[in-house]
Fold these 4 entries.
Entry 1:
Amino acid sequence: MIDNPKLERILADAKRNQMRLAKQVIVEDDPPISNALVTGVDVAYSDDIAVGCAVTIDSGTMKTIESINIVADVSFPYISGFFHLREGPIILGLLKKVQHKGPILIDGHGVFHPRRCGLASYIGVIADVQTIGVAKRPILPTQQCETDYGKALTIDGEVVGALLHIEGRRHPFYVSIGHRISLETAVRVVKGAILNGQVEPLRLAHVEANRVLHESLSC
């Protein structure tokens, strides 16, 4: 457990780092999406043990191209707005092993964040890869406006994400730019990875991470 004075220093440094990295986020398609590959990343936890899993699919066929996982120790608690301190090192280590990436879908927010640098943007900038934030809940109150690609989410006039409503699903997904991708393209990529009301690569990564975690705990 981290004592309060030390935790306060860590979070203060993390805030400064998030604001610095937010300025490096690229909100354009760099490079343009040229194939159907897309990777979903998720992490499962049990106390101080975590399993990270990355599943790459061909969104044209929904077939799995690659599935990679790692088991790691966790030393930082979950604190809203600072998810990258807990999950960032695990995902960064995981992505080093992934060969067929495409855009990386992160179960969390990107620029839809108090300091415009949630987990998806943090991973994108640090690893220099295309990332998209896909979350089930908002982190901040927003306004909405209509666009060609659906309802955009704005804060003080700044577009920070989009609502993605899926037929047959009660609650929408909150899609936001992570890094090196436009919001319009991010929404299109996530839409293209939907199967049976779920974002398929994220679902597969979630299932696999929990399976490996259960096996690790049983050993």
Entry 2:
Amino acid sequence: MLPFALLVRLDARPGKEDEVERLLHDALPLVQLEPATAEWYALRLGPTQFAVFDAFPDEEARQTHLTGDVVKVFTERADELLTAPPHVERADVVAHRIML
């Protein structure tokens, strides 16, 4: 089980929705370079709302992700693309099912 997680909410500025979606899509190769980021999902929740959910085997992996390139990219572009800074919530996974 991957008990450590993050839920990050992003609210795109009007007219910037496609750029946020593209940035999330383009972030995947950066995440793939993080061996301890076991799961990473970029989600569109509504017209301007996006989220990222990721899971990790331990707190060290979660912290490494929080200081990695993906977070830096979003931090650098937050003022341009988002109505507010990304809202990052630490979460504990209490149950899961993955079917491949």
Entry 3:
Amino acid sequence: MSEIFLDTETTGLSFKDGHKVVEIACIETKDLIATGKIFHKIINPKRSVPEEAYKVHGFSEKFLSDKEPFDKIAEEFLNFIKGKKIIIHNAPFDLGFLDGELSNLKKDKINREFVIDSLDIARNKFPGSSNSLDALCKRFNIDLSRRVKHNALLDCELLREVYINLLDAKEPKFDLINSSEQKINNIKEYNKLVVKISESEIKKHKDFLKSEIKKNYY
């Protein structure tokens, strides 16, 4: 099964308080290796953007005004995540908004059986510690220099690296050791072949050296 790393940015903290999604990003992976498939949309929330939210993600009401609303991108979004494992950091927050947006369109909520909350994994692994995405990046020495503002697409990329570390998984590498061993074995097999030189060939070689060396070096 493929995985989806998902993140959203919003106008506030709760859909129930009238806040809306302004950005959705999804990065697809296969066995945690990026496939190159990405879903990324900036969304017109059709409402004002509070100053507190603007400070977090940098999307102004004016900037969002000409973007597509959620109902225009919903079907594409659902098709992108369909049948895939969905990994979210603090899933209740993002799912609360996505389920709210989908419910308004009379569409099914996201199936929780496919959702993994990386925050739960982090809390179990590091109880009592800060387990925000920033804190986990610092713990695992993941570069945060690009994270000046919250950005859903960048956060998905960071989350993938965090998740790999949370699982103690490793990025796949080429099996250079085995390849080298195979080459050595091939050389050994080749060297087992012994060629016997005849007396006449030895004599011809000696005669060649006597006649040619003077030509080349004197």
Entry 4:
Amino acid sequence: MINRRTLTKTLGMALAATATTGVAGADDEDSRRRRYLVRGGAVVTADPALGVLPRADVLIDDGAIAGVGRDLDASGAKVVDATDMIVLPGFVNTHLHMWSALGRNFVADGFPYFAAKRATSTLYDAEDVYRSVLLGLAELANAGVTTVHNWSNNTRSPAHADAELRAHRDGLLRARFSYGHVDQMSRDVPMDFTDVDRVRQQYFSAGSAFDGLVHLGVAVRGLSQSAEPAFFADMDAAVRRGLPIAIHAGQAPPRIVEAADYERRGWLGPRTLLTHYVTALDGDMEVMARTGTPLSWSPHSEFRLGSAGDPRDALLRFRRAGVTVSLSSDATSIAPSDMFEAMRLVWNTGIPWQGTPSAGLPEVGFREVLRMATLDGARALGLGDVTGSITVGKRADVVLVRTNDINLAPGGLVETTLVQAANPANVDTVFSDGRIVKRGGRLVAYDVDRIVRDARASSLRIRTSAGGILTPPS
């Protein structure tokens, strides 16, 4: 008789050995890597040396960007006509709790995010999280996001971890999978890293998994969800393993992260990602900038859940200090996985506020917020040499946005258009690592009907099990 741990190990080994093939029903012709010439678009490269090219071609070959410029010679390439389109690097979402994507509508008036999470997080089985992560990945691809940080903060068992990784295998997007704790575990109990080691050995022994698209990290609870001895033990275990670390740094008083103390302990640097941190003092921000510690900023979440002060003020002070700021969604029950909307919110709120330390600081501009959503997001995940800009040699994570749609017409400055007006419905084509996953406004690499049907089934089961306000109508 095979016990659960043996079965999970066998499943993990099988998944690690399986090539990225996409989802049943995918269009194999479109989702193969091949040689493409994206011709004649307005190219927002996010590359500081190239900037915006009013009209240019992008050559994609074997999953990489092989050329950027006018009238490229690309014999043998399949032409993708980008006339009247904006070409840009795929967005990078640096903080998303993907296990709960199917719970996006569990919240209600008088029943906010944390109440809904407490009522449901223990009810997700392994198949539920597979369906949830795959739903989230398809939604991201539809919206032009090609890289995501899956902040897996409800990894309830080895089978749950395997299920999330199976979804990443099928989801075809670039990702960091940050193995986290079991939601609602005791504050006094450290994380058990036994299965982190198992996952690392079975999936990531070569450094990355699934054709190089996915790398491993650890999401620790931080002092908002664990007692100090348990948090210190979690950090020591993660640091010993040399894995990238992600920490919730606090949106509400009291201030739970003192950056100078974290620096003394050797916890800060480019491989540590802090999110939220609305409570940060100017000194904390200076330490982050000096140590190269990036920030993930979830604008909707900072406003909805933050009670430590005005997020506008905090964001402008992070910029003044020189901290690398990336953008994220947090959870789909707080904000959609829509980087257009995140950019628009940051742009509209990124203004100095009289009577605060931000008074007199420069406002956030269109080009800057686009960089936060692309290149700075890649840098925050340690992928700045891989993705985040349309640069020769980087992987081909490329998005085409139609400008003739009614909400974008009559066109104009392309960076303004992307931030001020565009939304996922305007995304025509998405390349992920040189594969087309969306074409002509339609997801071609996913069986969308099946993904939605399965997500509905899991959501209904969880809502029914939770009872109370979540009980579905008869």
